[in-house]
Specification:
The chain has two domains: about 1-145 and about 305-315, Rossmann fold (3-Layer(aba) Sandwich), CATH 3.40.50; about 145-300, Rossmann fold (3-Layer(aba) Sandwich), CATH 3.40.50. Helices cover about 40% and strands about 15% of the residues. The protein has helices spanning about 5-10, 30-45, 65-75, 100-110, 120-130, 145-160, 175-185, 205-215, 225-230, 250-255, 295-315, 320-324; strands spanning about 55-60, 80-85, 110-115, 135-140, 165-170, 190-195, 215-220, 235, 275. It has a five-stranded parallel sheet. It has a four-stranded parallel sheet with strand order 2-1-3-4, sandwiched between helices. Strand 6, helix 8 and strand 7 (about 215-220) form a beta-alpha-beta unit. The longest helix is centred in the last third of the chain and has 19 residues, at about 295-315. Bound molecules: phosphoric acid mono(formamide)ester (CP).
Length: about 325
């Protein structure tokens, strides 16, 4: 069976490290599809004794509701044990301990480290200094790979395919790490991307270049028009990332630029689904929640199953054998 994390494994082999999962850009199309199948099997059968005796550390240096709780639920449902923190202010980081020393300490105790950090590249760095596998639960404005796998799973479940979809991504495309990972992850499936953002929050050049180099069709606009809405198979709304702004006056200018309201969906395609990595602030009006095209709550539930699959893959637990 091809390993999901081939790239990371290859880069780690020289120093005899286990596998880590730090970026979705490292995954091939085949491995993404394989992971979707494993996620499907966890959705059918989420309670399994696959992590018996394993201790998983959950280190959240930034706030989280879904990612932390769904990872921790995933571990609990697999009969593993969790240690960690959800507020770094209660740890020795507050006394000035470095990330390196924190990772080395936790590596003494745990079989796996799930980590969210405010610095871009923190998960990659952690994976280079320890033999304990690292799962990136979000690093600054860079990547959020487990979110992307749950987004892809949600797209597959709602569309019945991942191929040839028109995906409109709206909001903070500059700082939104879920957006960056989604572009990498969906790039294997011939999407058409419509990028909708204010000029200040335009998709970074790196990702525009990525699309161009890989022949991925995209357009950019500041206008979240009816035409775009009515062509879309997926609308992926995002929050303006207040915590990434150095000047809060700039945040105030753009924070409510796009608000999706139910009336805007009246001529949309039947198969359209609205996704959002959440939390939402103002981007989706509450009157959208009762529209059958709203999928963001189920999307977050899918995160638990996809994270079960990721944890097993990182730890080298072959679920095909154990669940057959
Ligand atoms: N989607 C997401 O990362 O949500 P949390 O910040 O609540 O984990």
């Amino acid at each position: 069976m091809q390993n999901l994390f081939t790239f990371v494994f290859k880069t780690s082999m020289n120093c005899m490290k286990k596998e880590s999962f730090v970026s979705v850009a490292d995954l091939s199309k085949a491995t993404i599809i394989q992971l979707m199948k494993k996620t499907e099997s966890f959705e059918k059968n989420p309670n399994q004794q696959l992590l018996d005796g394993k201790i998983c550390a959950s280190l959240f240096f930034e706030p989280s509701t879904r990612t932390r709780l769904s990872f921790e639920t995933a571990v609990n449902r697999l009969d593993g044990r969790i240690i960690g923190f959800s507020d770094a202010a209660t740890t020795s980081s507050a006394k000035g301990e470095t990330l390196k020393d924190t990772i080395l300490m936790v590596s003494n105790y745990a079989d796996l480290i799930i980590m969210r950090h405010y610095l871009e590249g923190a998960a990659r760095y952690a994976s280079e200094i320890t033999n304990v596998p690292i799962i990136n639960a979000g690093d600054g404005a860079n990547q959020h790979p487990s979110q992307t796998l749950l987004d892809i799973y949600s797209i597959y479940k709602t569309q019945g395919t991942l191929e040839n979809l028109e995906i409109t991504i709206v909001g903070d495309l500059k700082y939104g790490r879920t957006v960056h990972s989604l572009i990498n992850g969906m790039s294997h499936f011939n999407p058409i991307f419509h990028f909708i953002s204010p000029e200040e929050l335009r998709i970074p050049e790196t990702y525009r270049n990525f699309c161009e180099e890989n022949g991925i069709k995209y357009d950019e606009s500041c206008d979240f028009s009816n035409d775009i809405i009515n062509r879309s198979d997926i609308i992926y709304m995002t929050r303006v990332q207040r915590e990434r702004f150095t000047d809060l006056m700039e945040y105030e200018k753009v924070k409510n630029v796009y608000i999706l309201r139910n009336e805007m969906l009246k001529d949309s395609k039947d198969n359209l689904r609205i996704l959002h990595p959440l939390p939402r602030v103002n981007e989706i009006a509450y009157d959208v929640d009762d529209n059958p095209k709203a999928y963001y709550i189920e999307q977050a539930k899918n995160g638990m199953f996809v994270r079960q699959a990721i944890i097993c893959e990182v730890l080298g637990i072959n679920i095909n054998e154990t669940t057959a």
